[in-house]
# Entry
Amino acid sequence: MDEKHILSQLTVSTSLEADHGMVEEQSEIHDDESLPCADLKPASNAAPSPEDKVVSYIESQLSSILCQLCSQDGTPSITINRRSARQSGCVLNQDTGALESTSTVRVVPHTYSWPGKTAQETWRFATILRILGHIHEAIKGDFTSTKRDLYYLDPVHFGKQAVVDRYVDDIAFTIGVDRAALHVQAAAKGLVAGHFTIFLENGARIQVGNFSEGLLIPRVESIERVEMADINWILVVEKEAVFHRLIISRYHEVSSAGKGIILTGKGYPDLSTRQFLRFLSTQTSETHLTPPEIFVLVDGDPDGISIMSTYKYGSLAQAHDNKHLNVPNIHWFGLKTSEFAMNMAQRHATSSDRAKVRGGVAHSLMSLRPRDRKKAMSMLENSPIVAEDGPEREWREELQKMLILNVKAEIEVLYDIDGEIDGWLDRRLKKTWDEE
# Structure
């Protein structure tokens, strides 16, 4: 009987007892001389790859569990390490341009036994074992699945997606590898459009321009290289709706600034989107000795600035990995709420122009909600990015103007100006390059 089969059988056994937090009658475990503990321990002394390290860890855990099962008084257990949930703040690393946590990561070990002292402990043991079993199968089978796929293997047992998310991250932290080494990834949500080519490690080639509604962003680990010799610019937009409007008008093809790439993380970006943008930001070609310039278009509200900050500097949640994810060379296109608010207040227009403003631009200017004000104040007080001595004074001033004027604006305000959003983008690109 091989290790994979043993792990599968033990996972099923523990899950049957632990589902819904109710422990049923314990399965009877018989000694089996065909399962000597020593046979399951990894024998190789070579420096392991991350995947080898994961497999070695899982098989070592299995070996320990089987040894305990073969012992008359044995109690199988698994210990998982977690990072301390407490954060004391963050600072900006001047060398990498990335946010870093100022707190010392505290490792908190959690041990779960089978059968546990409580039904909940037994369920946790079964949950971890089930996830380890799938990870082992994925690495050995050389395939990658999503956290969502893993959850749907047994949604009744797991209960909710957050359970899978937490334990996958805890397992990676315990072993000391990136989550990619587990062959488990978050479900991709980011989209990209543009006439460029992605070459994958498996030899496949993706012509991104053939995807009329945008391509779901692939894993960076699967990419060998990209070919984007004709690309002059990259535009990151906050919203999926704005992304689709721009690709329907083929802005990435017909822009007066030449061909470009449009990308969206659908709000706050996931890791795959951040990794992909970071990857694109480092690519050069024979015709472009430097990477294309990257611009960001977000709502004119505190969340928009926070989303832009996530791309450029990273997030506190991923502080340990921001230096591999941040994109320091991005430029803020807008939306700058203060521009629209001040222009409306100062404009001397005809009555027909005023009607157009009232019916168009004005409808996208809204009052800040209490949550918006709270977030803006928190950013001004706690973020080193928009601190008085921080690197983004313009962002700080914009947040202050939002609070004073008590307004925010959505990107959709650009639909109602002359030339609509396409013309506005062309003017911004021209102005940016004229100033350089």
Notes: Residues 1-7, 12-36, 38-42, 346-361 have pLDDT under 50 and may be disordered.
